[in-house]
Amino acid sequence: MDQPSDNQLIQQATDGSSDAFGVLVQRYQDRLVHSLEHALGSRDDALDAAQQAFVSAWKNLKSFRQDAAFYSWLYRIAMNAAITRKRRQRLPTQSLDRHVAATGHSPTDDSADTNPESRMVSAEHVELVQNALLQLAEEFRQPLVLKEIDGMSYEEIASILDIPIGTVRSRIFRARRELTERLERIFRSEQ
Fold first, then answer.
1. Residue 95 domain-assigned (yes or no)
2. Where is each RNA polymerase sigma-70 region domain found (predicted)?
3. Which of 13, 33, 131, 178 would be 20's cystine partner, CB 3.0–4.6 Å?
4. Are 78 and 36 in contact (CB under 8 A)?
5. Which helix (H) or strand (E) holds 81?
6. CA dihedral in degrees (61, 30, 138, 121; nearest 10)?
7. pLDDT of 73-96, one tens digit each?
8. How far is 156 from 160, CA to CA, in rounded Å?
9. Which H helix or E strand runs over 67?
């Protein structure tokens, strides 16, 4: 049996079917959370932004123009919600070392990996890349995450961010260059 299209589900949802909207949520929730997690740097923030986006999308579904992709519209709602939330919070961060010094406890890794050194190096590299990515300006980080992590086309990114394709290309180029330079400096300083 064929799956209903997004537009069919949207029409059913605007006619009052919460089940149809539930199918849309199931269809896009994992993808949205994954994208937001990389863009925001926090799974908790990603989950909050995704939840807020789905609620907002449900409330404003009648305003959705079906000439755009539903996911693009949803992603834009989620990023706007996340940005607004971050502006309101602006909480100071605390380093892990400071936390360990204050509590006397180190976080533990209970995974079954047999090579702790390899696991540690891999985790450090992931953290370095994530931190370097988070240091990029939002206008450069968003298109890079959408392209490299979500595998979106330049056209899809332009639609989501509501910017010209040329701007998408230049921002991704600049983000890649800046990310590479940051990582090269970090890895050189470790040697």
1. no
2. 24-90
3. 13
4. yes
5. helix 70-89
6. 170
7. 998 898 888 777 766 665 455 566
8. 6
9. none
Q: Which helix (H) or strand (E) holds 66?
A: none
Predicted model pTM: 0.57
- Please state, in angstroms and rounded to a whole number, the distance separating the CA atoms of residues 149 and 15: 35
Range of the domain at 49: 6-89
Residues 138 and 161: their CA atoms lie apart, in Å, by 11
Tokens linked to 125: 């590299």
| CA end-to-end span of the chain | 58
Q: What is the CA radius of gyration of the chain?
A: 20
Question: Which of 72, 89, 106 represents a domain boundary (last residue)?
Answer: 89
CA distances from 13 to 7, 22, 152 (A): 10, 9, 26
pLDDT tens sequence across 26-60: 999 999 998 888 877 788 888 988 999 999 999 99
Tell me, rounded to whole angstroms, the distance of Cα 69 from its chain centroid. 18
- How many CB atoms are located within 10 Å of the residue 136 CB? 19
Please classify residue 168 by burial: count the beta carbons closer than 10 Å to its beta carbon, then call 0-12 exposed, 13-18 middle and 19+ buried.
buried
Question: Which tokens belong to 105?
Answer: 């406890």
Please list, in sequence order, all residues whose beta carbon lies within 8 angstroms of the beta carbon of residue 13, skipping any fewer than 6 positions away: 20, 21, 24, 58, 61
